[in-house]
Amino acid sequence: MFGRSRALQRSETTNSGARQSSVWSLAIAAAPLSIAGVFDSISTSMPRLAAARWCTAEDLGIFVAINYVGVAVVLAMNSIYYSRITAFASLYAAGSWRRLSLAVARLAGVSFFVAAAAVFMAVLIGDKAIGLVYGQGFVSGHRLLCWTLAGAGVTCVSLVGVVLLTAVGRYRAIGLVYLGYDYIVFRALCWGQSGILNQLQSQRLSLGFSRC
Q1: What is the domain extent for residue 201?
Q2: Is there a domain that residue 17 lies in?
């Protein structure tokens, strides 16, 4: 009886170690995909902005500043994700549904507020930079609130969804889902920046400025 108990304990320990090893190996494999999504968004958007006749070096500098804020956010969210995924998988395997639900709720709250602060700062930094260069801000309080809530919501739902997918064992989906998460967040930032720069273009044209 004691022999069976010790054998069962060794088996559970071995399975737990193998499961954790699989989680970490796949998480590490997903890291280059998330980073690739970040730089793909930057590399595809920069030439489009550079080709615009009304886009100056100052505009590109503002764009890069906002995107690097976004890069910092993605790295921060990745670190939160990688630090929690093993605990989530262990709670799921043990059937601790109450503790798992509390952990998900905490992760959702942290990811929402981190993302909200990041999007708020990214848009606000862009607006203040434009104001310093051209003497006028272009982001209204309403638009800033909308972008903050939208960016935080996308980040929160994506991060929690990816963690749950991984925790229940669907490891093969992790790379594509997490790459999609990074890509969506950065596309959203690009759309917001395009709106700001379009306002800048209209203001410049109304004042009779041109790039020539």
Answers
A1: 22-206
A2: no
Number of domains observed in the structure of the chain: 1
* Long-range Cβ pairs for the range 24-31 (8 Å, 24+): 24/85, 24/86, 26/166, 26/171, 26/174, 26/175, 27/81, 27/82, 27/85, 27/166, 27/174, 29/175, 30/174, 30/175, 30/178, 30/179, 31/78
SS3 content of the chain, % helix, strand, coil (to 5): 90, 0, 10
At 162-207, the pLDDT tens digits run 666 655 555 545 545 555 555 555 555 555 555 555 555 565 555 5
Decide if 16 contacts 90 (C-beta within 8 A).
yes
The reply to whether 81 falls in a domain is yes
**Domain annotation covers residue 12:** no
Residue 211 domain flag: no
Chain segment 23-36, per-residue pLDDT in tens: 454 444 444 444 54
- Torsion over CA: 30, 38, 158, 73 (sign): positive
